[in-house]
Design goal:
The complex is a heterodimer of chains A (about 325) and B (about 280).
Chain A: E1 3-9, H1 16-26, E2 34-41, E3 48-53, H2 69-85, E4 89-97, E5 100-106, H3 113-120, E6 126-131, E7 134-140, H4 143-150, E8 157-165, E9 180-181, E10 189-196, H5 199-208, H6 220-231, H7 236-246, E11 249-257, E12 260-265, E13 274-277, E14 281-285, H8 288-292, E15 309-313
Antiparallel strand pairs in A: 1-8, 1-14, 2-7, 2-8, 3-5, 3-6, 4-5, 9-10, 10-11, 11-12, 12-15, 13-14
Helix pairs in contact in A: 2-3, 5-6, 6-7
Chain B: H1 12-15, E1 49-57, H2 63-75, E2 78-84, E3 101-105, E4 117-123, E5 137-142, E6 158-161, E7 174-180, E8 194-199, E9 215-218, E10 229-232, H3 236-248, E11 261-265, H4 276-283
Parallel strand pairs in B: 1-2, 2-3, 3-4, 4-5, 5-6, 6-7, 7-8, 8-9
Antiparallel strand pairs in B: 9-11, 10-11
The chains are: A alpha+beta (about 325), B alpha/beta (about 280).
Chain lengths: ~325, ~280
């Protein structure tokens, strides 16, 4: 089933990790195989924040294979060497969990593709996100589990999107969890609720054009599809509108960039979305109770219609 | 084969175009006989006094607790119940089978007022997906917007939304009336079998897709017609009924009903033979 939530403050920063946690926890009945956050925190904008994993969570319910921690250590050493070989510099290094890391990296190149390819050439390593503001954190368990595990309640920022997953199309693991980074574009992330029926056709076509897939989760296609459109020069909104024709199936998805948040709904409006819009806050989720988790007072909300695309800027 | 008896008598609903098939054989509808009322017991119902009023704050309660408490209050004779702070909870007010004035001060989540038979409900907020699904009788009024699948599979009663509604409004409905003051999304009246839908605003694509029967009235623009949904003449009888219904619903009383578009089934996909179950029974 899965649940998605997103919010954007236009004129202030808040404790965005706590707010998204509350929204996603309200949706945990829609799936708690894994939960993911794409948080756009306040930073000085100088360095890239790279969230990456060197292995999988092999806890209860996981479909991943157990690996020794020493394997992770070895992968980290190679990643560090690759970063230096690309002319980048590690400013800050945090190992949040044995398999999950957060680096602040000084890197002057705008195109992150070569950099990402080099890092991900290490078997078992995946960059979850890379950006000047974006941090993608995803792991097994419900929203509170993941928030507590990664101390997300301390992150202050303007906007965020998140996903509570009931695994149906692919395994219970971090690589199949949402949000997906819009590789190789800095600060682009996607969450999705639904099923895409032309996944393989699109995937084959996009891979032939040099795009990268890390999982077999159909939702990843949206991130890759939009990244391809951005690479071809389209604006985010143009790419999203195009996706209504190019993607077949039922879906509601959110996209976020450094300074914007967008939503798109398929032409049959088969997947739910409730939206609250005010002058300074947009909050949306698969169910109204997600919005109520941060706005308990009586508010006016509505369901966007079929084929609707909306983008809000800070 | 059973000894089937055909009736040529046209009912009022048939003459108004609500349905056209002749009811025959063992499958024809049997209506309740009021003279047998003293022998009739409807499980789960109570004698309530509409003047006996109470309020219930449900902020800290779960949906099953709320529904159980509504049942408990009805068993004590309360005929008017005001629910405070519903806060978008799912499945509130489901399965109420008797007359009751129920007022929600706030919004409901999914499946609110499902499978009800008789209550008069006012929701001073919005509702999520599948509001009043399977409604048998009664009246449900929503003051703000509603989500998708509004009035799915209702069999009777009046379901009124003063705001706009999502997609698939009245999907699979088998009777009753749905009235919407604002706009409606795609696939409105999808596979409807009986009953009537009134939308005063615009509707999305595939209006009345694969409808078996029933009637849809649209006041605004139509995105597109669905398979086998066709426009029909708006009769004087239709207009009278629309005026009356909008007045009773306290919605769009001044609306010019003469400009509405009437949509019915083209019956090309129609394959709804009410003899079939009897024939199957005979064969067995």
């Amino acid at each position: 089933m899965c649940g998605i939530a997103g919010l954007i403050y236009k004129d202030k920063s808040v404790n965005i990790g706590t707010q998204l946690q509350a929204m996603l926890q309200a949706l945990k009945h829609r799936g708690e195989d894994s939960t993911g956050y794409a948080l756009y925190g306040d930073t000085d904008g100088k360095n890239f924040i790279m969230r990456f994993k060197v292995g999988e969570n092999v806890g209860e319910g996981s479909s991943s294979v157990n690996e020794e921690t020493s394997v992770y250590d070895e992968r980290i050493k190679i990643v560090n060497a690759h970063i230096l070989s690309m002319g980048a510099k590690i400013i800050k290094e945090e190992r949040i969990l044995p398999y999950s890391l957060r680096y602040e990296v000084s890197y002057d190149e705008k195109d992150l593709r070569d950099f990402s390819r080099k890092i991900e050439s290490v078997p078992g390593v995946e960059i979850l996100s890379m950006g000047k503001s974006l941090e993608v954190i995803k792991d097994l368990g419900n929203a509170k589990d993941v928030c507590d595990r990664y101390n997300l309640d301390k992150i202050v920022g303007t906007h965020a999107i998140g996903h509570a997953r009931m695994a149906t199309e692919s395994g219970v693991d971090i690589k199949s969890a949402h949000p997906f980074w819009g590789y190789p574009f800095s600060d682009v992330s996607v969450v999705h609720n639904g099923q895409l029926t032309n996944y393989w056709n699109n995937r084959r076509m996009l891979e032939n054009e040099g795009m990268r897939f890390m999982s077999e989760c159909d939702s990843e296609l949206i991130a890759v599809y939009l990244a391809k459109k951005l690479r071809d020069g389209a604006t985010l909104e143009e790419g999203m509108r195009d996706s209504l024709k190019g993607l077949d199936g039922v879906f509601t998805y959110f996209v976020a960039t450094k300074d914007s948040l967008g939503m798109a709904k398929d032409t049959m409006a088969a997947k739910p979305l409730v939206l609250y819009e005010s002058d300074n806050l947009i909050a949306m989720g698969s169910e109204e109770i997600a919005i109520r988790a941060i706005l308990p007072q009586e508010i006016d909300t509505y369901d966007p219609y079929d084929g609707e695309v909306k983008v809000w800027q800070i | 084969m059973a000894n089937l008896k055909t009736t040529d008598k046209k009912s009022t609903s048939q003459s108004m175009g609500m349905h056209t098939e002749l009811l025959t054989g063992r499958t024809q509808q049997k209506f309740f006989n009021p003279s047998e009322a003293e022998n009739f017991f409807y499980f789960g119902t109570y004698d309530v006094d509409f003047n006996k009023r109470t309020e219930l704050d449900v902020k800290e309660m779960t949906a099953p607790e709320v529904n159980k408490e509504i049942d408990n209050l009805m068993s004590k004779g309360f005929g008017t119940i005001v629910i405070k702070n519903p806060q978008g909870k799912h499945s509130l007010g489901v399965g109420i089978l008797n007359k009751l004035n129920l007022i929600f001060e706030g919004s409901l989540g999914y499946f609110g007022m499902g499978s009800c038979d008789g209550p008069t409900v006012r929701i001073n907020g919005r509702v999520g997906w599948s509001c009043a699904e399977n409604l048998m009788a009664g009246k449900v009024v929503i003051e703000k917007n509603a989500g998708s699948c509004f009035g799915a599979a209702i069999r009777g009663g009046d379901l009124i939304c003063k705001g706009s509604v999502g997609a698939r409004t009245g999907i699979d409905m088998k009777g009753g009336t749905i009235i919407v003051g604002g706009d409606a999304g795609a696939f409105t009246g999808f596979m409807m079998q009986r009953g009537r839908i009134i939308i005063l605003g615009d509707v999305g694509i595939n209006l009345g897709d694969s409808m078996y029967d029933g009637t849809i009235f649209i006041g605004g623009k139509i995105g597109s017609f669905g398979s086998d949904a066709v426009p029909a003449d708006l009769t004087v009888s239709d207009q009278d009924w629309l005026k009356r219904k909008l007045k009773v619903a306290e919605i769009g009383e001044k609306f010019d009903v003469s400009k509405m578009t009437k949509i019915v089934s083209g019956k090309k996909l129609w394959n709804y033979d009410n003899l079939e179950p009897a024939e199957k029974k005979g064969a067995i």
